[in-house]
Amino acid sequence: MALIDVIKWESSTSELAHCCEIDDITLGSQLVVGPAQTAVFVRGGMIFDEFGPGTHTLSTYNLPLLKHLTAAPFGGVSPFQAQVWFVNGISLLDGKWGTQTPIQIEDPKYGVIVPVRAYGQYGFHVSDPRTFLERLIGNMPSFATAQVAEYFRGVILSKLTGIVSDKMCADGMSVTGINTRVEELSDYALERLRPEFAAYGIELEMFRVISVSVNESDPSFRRLKEAKDALARITIMGRDNYRLERSFDVLDSAAGNEGGAVGAAVGLGAGLSFGREISALAIGQMAAADTPPPLPGAAQAAAPIYLGIDGRQEGPMDTEAVTAAFMAGRIGPRTLAWRRGMAAWTPLADMPEFAFMCHDCPPPLPHE
């Protein structure tokens, strides 16, 4: 059997590690290690000596850990058996990742859970060949780039939901504007994911979120946009003016419906009563700037409100708490409500201060 004189490996981007199992290595043989390669001697499952790029003549000087494995009776040049692993350290920058199914993200600003999809690109290289061999190679004769990409794609997706949620909460970022912040999200994800790669001797060089998309026809996204629009109008107009505007919307809608709640269905008396409440609210709003506030102790706080949610009673709650629950999507205009002085439970939107909730809802069906 001929003795091995030259040991080398022609690497490519498709393979990150390759094993040359050689029975007849002699001291004095040449080891050729290409650019961005590392050669590692392994024997009996143990990692011994490493060599960087260049041409190396093997001797007991540069193989100190394998020195005792060579047989002395042959003058230190007898053949010995070992595995020589060549690890490719080239930078691979075209790794792709993407969500196969939507991930569920809770919008920290509005409290609505929205399904989103995302995709992007990442790049890496083997930075610690010894750790890479110990953690990933095992008894395989080679390790393809595609195997590493597939493994770490799973790592990325398993961590992505927490990464996106944490960044959104930290910055008060809403799903509706997340695509304008993909660069910040990319940098944050890079720092969070680096330790996951480093544990396997790999350095994550770059990580990019290219796009985050939301299905705009999804009911949860529509609810999120409605909450955002309502909050924007409240901020601009003030809560009382917004409430007044929504009350007028209800009247306009009912007036145009022959069987509406303010028509024959409820009766003229109910319509006039409701109209008087709205008129009083309007007059109070217009006169507010010209009249002094009530004397201390003169104003009476509204009685607390109780809600019926999923068959359970919740409360007491004040008006602000009820409005916040509506904005978060926990309750709707038909949620049953009761406060002291009411004879029975009634839909929330039938209470004057919550009439704004029902500007898009149909009125009750007329009685036969």
Structure, briefly:
This protein is of the alpha+beta class and 368 residues long. The protein has helices at residues 129-137, 145-171, 182-198, 219-237, 239-255, 268-287, 319-327, and strands at residues 4-7, 15-33, 37-43, 46-51, 54-57, 80-88, 92-98, 103-106, 113-126, 142-144, 202-214, 305-309, 312-317, 336-339, 346-347. Helices cover 32% and strands 29% of the residues.
Number of helices: 7
Element order: H for helix, E for strand: EEEEEEEEEHEHHEHHHEEHEE
Measure the end-to-end span.
105 Å
Taking pLDDT < 50 over at least 5 consecutive residues as the criterion, the unreliable ranges are 71-77, 258-291
Portion in helices? 25-40%
Shape: rod-shaped
- Counted up, domains total 3
Q: Output the CATH topology of the largest domain.
A: Tetrahydropterin Synthase, Chain A
Radius of gyration from the alpha-carbon trace, in angstroms: 36 Å
Question: Beta fraction of the residues?
Answer: 25-35%
CATH class of the largest domain: Alpha Beta
How many β-strand stretches? Answer: 15
Global mean pLDDT: 76
Give the biggest sheet.
Answer: 7 strands, mixed
Named CATH architecture of the largest domain: 2-Layer Sandwich
The CATH homologous superfamily of the largest domain is named Band 7 domain
**Structural class of the helix and strand makeup?**
alpha+beta
